[in-house]
Amino acid sequence: MAHTRYDCHAGCPVEATLEVIGGKWKGVILYHLLSKTIRFNELRRLMPEITQRMLTKQLRELEAENLITRTVYAEVPPKVEYSMTDYGQTLAPVIHALQIWGVQHLKQTSEDP
User: Fold this and answer.
1) 12-111 has CATH 1.10.10.10 classification
2) Three-class secondary structure of residue 81 per DSSP
3) pLDDT in tens, 9-58
4) Would you call 91 helix, strand, or coil by DSSP?
5) How far is the C-alpha of 16 from the C-alpha of 97, rounded, in Å?
């Protein structure tokens, strides 16, 4: 995957981070993979609203960024598992912070009249 070169200004690191983990599904995928290795179909069950095509695309992009690893087992039917790389694990504090903020945000928005 080609990496974007940034004309770095104050927000540049945030922009770079969001380019890698941004979007509707990547953060959720990373959250699920933080604690364990998960098979492709289990990820689909955990995120029932994602299409198979979109899940495959997002997983490939995360793999290209070296955040996750894909292991294929020569079985019939094929078994494919995904797990976080050591580099991907460095996102754990970011993902947990997003989760905490999200819980607070959901609580806040449910309390608004």
Assistant:
1) yes
2) strand
3) 666 888 888 889 988 999 999 999 999 999 999 999 999 999 999 999 99
4) coil
5) 18
Give the count of alpha carbons within 13 A of 25, CB side only.
Answer: 19
Question: Are 37 and 83 contacting, i.e. CB atoms less than 8 angstroms apart?
Answer: yes
Residue 31: closest CA among 84, 104, 103, 86: 84
- Where are the domains positioned within the chain? 12-111
- 70-97 pLDDT, tens digit each: 999 988 888 999 999 999 999 999 999 9
Find tokens 């797990």 and name the residue.
83
Burial call 85-96: b when 16+ CB within 10 Å, e when fewer: eeebeebeeebe
> How far apart are the C-alpha atoms of 85 and 95, rounded to whole Å?
15
Return the axis-axis angle of helices 12-21 and 26-33, rounded to nearest 10°.
80
Q: Which one, of 78, 36, 39, lies nearest residue 59 by Cα?
A: 39
Angle, vertex CA 23, rays to CA 17 and CA 48, nearest 5: 135
